[in-house]
Amino acid sequence: MKHLLGCEGMSAEEALNLLDTAAEFSALAGRKVPKLPTLRGVSVANLFFEDSTRTRLSFESAAKKLSADVITFTGQGSSLSKGESLKDTAQTIEAMGTHIIVVRHSSSGAAWRLAHSGWLHSSVINAGDGTHEHPTQALLDAFTLRGRLHGDGAIGKDLSGVSVVIVGDIAHSRVARSNVHLLTTLGATVTLVAPKTLTPSEVEQWPVRHTTSFDEALAEHPQAVMMLRVQNERMKGSHFPSPREYIAHYGLSVQRFRKLPESTLIMHPGPINRGVEIFSIAADSPQSTILEQVTNGVWVRMAALYAVHGQEGS
Amino acid sequence: MSDVLIRGAQLLGASEGDLGIRDGVFVPADDIHAGAKKTRVVDASGLVALPGLVDLHTHLRQPGMDHAETVLSGSRAAAAGGFTAVFAMANTQPVADSVGITDLVYRLGREAGYVDVRPIGAVTKGLAGEELAGIAGMANGRAAVRVFSDDGHCVSDSLVMRRALEYVSTFGGVIAQHAQDPQLTEGSQINEGALSSRLGLTGWPAVAEEAIIARDILLAEYTGARLHICHLSTRGSVQIVRDAKARGARVTAEVTPHHLLLTEDLTAGYDPLFKVNPPLRSDDDVLAVREGVADGTIDIVATDHAPHPSESKDCAFGEAAFGMLGLETALSVIQHSLVDSGLIDWSRVATILSSTPAQIGQLAGYDAPLQVGSPAHLTLVDPTASHTGEMRYTASSNNPYLGRSLPGRVMHTFYSGRATVIDGDVVEPDVVGGES
Amino acid sequence: MAADYVLTESDIARTLKRIAHEIVEGNPEADHLVLLGIPTRGAVLARRLALHIGDINGVVPPVGTLDVTLYRDDLGDGAMRVPQPTEAPEGGIDDRVVVLVDDVLFSGRTVRAAFDALIDLGRPRAVRLAVLVDRGHREFPIRADYVGKNLPSALNERVSVYVEDVDHEEGVRVER
User: Fold this and answer.
1) What parts of chain A have a pLDDT lower than 50?
2) CB proximity list for B265: less than 8 A, separation 6 or greater
3) Residues from chain C contacting residue A36 (CB–CB below 8 Å)
4) What CATH code is carried by the domain that includes residue A96?
5) Residue-wise pLDDT tens digits, B265-289
6) How far is A89 from A76, CA to CA, in rounded Å?
7) What are the residue ranges spanned by the domains of chain C?
8) pTM for the full predicted model
């Protein structure tokens, strides 16, 4: 694939290839030299118009583990914040000789524009565009889920029959969108939980089930529950009357957690708001995959870089 | 000025006939001597003769945004599209909220000389929606402004809108409302629906347009004022206007060429070329507005020609400006979506694109199209020609029709008897003879 | 079909046993021996060799796999290649005599990549190379220590090894 812009339209085969490759990369952790020469001489530019230290570091780490050269541009204090356009910034970076551009931007479709506008030759990896997609997050979520469910025998397996509940501000979540595409492609059943004000319009057309009742969704004993952050602005104002109401209805409270079977996996893309959408008893339990999601993010991003390299210019 | 004899045109698309022009007005064709030295004879066989077109909604960007368009370049683009009069919206820099700016725009139009440029005055100062603009001053200035609009913004405060309707009717004017509830459309990018949901772009719900239209019609009825609705785009809006007219409300409505043809799925590739306000809607909405034009619910087509420099479109979707070009292709789009599809004939095109907009804007000289004694505003169109959407005269390039096959070519345009377009090309400024 | 094979199933079996003997003779310190097969077929052959070695001297050496996909010098020339698993043999490779096992030795680039992969896994005492078939046309100065069969070939020919576990047939074929 020349670009990795989203999980929409990704075939099951492509998805499994990425996950299986990530699995091989994860074996590096135990090696004497946890590094590969695979992308030696390849130049990767992180273009983070919207800041995110964690995702940025994850991509930097992934690129370095493959011996690629990494340059990073963030919003603060650079020409990006001085109003240089998306097009000019990307072309300037490419003029310095990059092969792969990893981009995070607050506008939905920014990665698509970079990839298809004819401004660049480089391959583009979407590290999050507005409220549209965040494909590497969904991939690491699927990788984590697969690993927990199948252990060492995970290679080659998809997520057929696995039930996942995603809770939170679905309407504004690129993580939710990417996960809906990827999880359903891999055969999982997805149930979305959100109040009507945070539910995307015409969600009936999405290949998911949806409900406004978290307890109803939990009563079906899903194998995994994925909690999403809710931004402060949405919790007040007109989306939701108060944080207390939100927590009472949509938070993974102590009470709700205690009712769950011990096998239920608790997932969260991070960073977590303790005491809001998730409580410590859940976040710190053995069922929580939060930290391994972060670790797996590096392997999955290595797989993404590996998958697109060599395709630039084609 | 020399005499002109137009031979063999299909007058208003119907019977074939000749037209004579002398001293800026239509005269009986027999009065013109074809052989006389200074007479220009135009062979119009196969061409449809329409009255000069009148655009009630254009953005000429001058003063303040000359890099996108000027009164001169916009006038030339208008002439190329068969227009002889354009109403220029007030959202310039500075805003046209006082007689100084409206008279300036009027003068620039006369200097350019291609079309009658009628400035539109703002409803509120600075388009801020709070205090009324210098309406009386603008109405009494040289530009004699009769149409007032905050287009680009909605006059959303109900009290301000009520006062504006009352005040403008004092001067016999009309308010042209850009119907968009700002609180329902904060950060909106494209039509709200399954597509916006999938693309992760904030939706612009139809109800934000319809609710304002409904409110304004009731206010207009209550105050006895005239109301004009800009760029209608949804089935719901059409129905509200239809019901209002049925009970006798004094409301008129316009639709843009792009809302008659283009739909929201063009935005699936995040190309800001298709980002416009109100947004492109669904197939069903396009059907509804076409039906609205056919049954008279929608009175006119107005281009909402909105030039933008490339920096404003060559960027991420969320950062791009709203607006599309439209002057040069308007007639082609109308021919394609309404005439060739059998919904209306050319005589109705003349009504919706010339006599009615002139009437709403209180522009004299368009009520008896092509009749002897009327000012010689005329455009001759070849309906059999086709092109691929190019625009040659506007200073900007945000053209959503490029590459699309469209029918019809404007071959000749006459503004008060002076040729502004000859054989498909706009004449040079020194030839058209604007006032210096 | 059997007539097509330049090496039949029984040829392969005999050859592997002979190589196993050579390995044992050349490496008397049996407890330091490990085998690393290059997937896919090299790994299959490595497992068989290990069993034969066990038959000969009573100790089955640890076997691992070494995928070289990520060390190749021709990546990015086509579709993404999903790497196969790399499993270090039990006890690792540090201070061991590592016998790399592959099915066909040709240009030598795969083995070159294997050296890089090997070094990142650990520091062996020594590295040996065992191949079932050597078809010549080396592009790198590499030679095998243990060769099943020398098969001179033309560049436009394909020398293919088929093993039951992977291909549901067993034999070596030369195809034009």
Assistant:
1) 313-314
2) B195
3) 70-71, 120
4) 3.40.50.1370
5) 999 999 999 999 999 999 999 999 9
6) 14
7) 20-152
8) 0.89
